Amino acid sequence: MRRTIKAYVSPGENHWVAECMEIGVVTQGKTLDETIANLKKATALFLEGEDPSDYDLAPNPSLMITIGQRNKNLAVPISMDDEELLEYLEDQEDIREARKALREGGPSIDWEDAKKELGLK
Q1: d(CA 97, CA 56)
Q2: What is the per-residue pLDDT for 85?
Q3: I need a surface site. Which of 16, 30, 34, 61 has the fewest CB within 10 A?
Q4: What is the CA radius of gyration of the chain?
């Protein structure tokens, strides 16, 4: 029996999309955090009242999430209760991207202008 449910999360045009192909769960969210939270809820609801062995799953399986972003995939095992790990991994990716941008140089953009350009409030 499998101890993990594999999921793939990727950015769409306006939302992040998450799919668990093995059990037919699909969800979305405006942010990666929201999408992962929705995925965990949807997976828990799908399995609620079900016998996990019917899906060849061990009791209390973890999610193995592959995050597709910027032509790179990052596979991360995440328990159904562990959002802190996801936040840490996102922060580390953001730090790497910021350092790379600083090394590349170029003109700075005012934060308020950047938010307007991206449609953020």
Answers
A1: 39
A2: 61
A3: 30
A4: 17
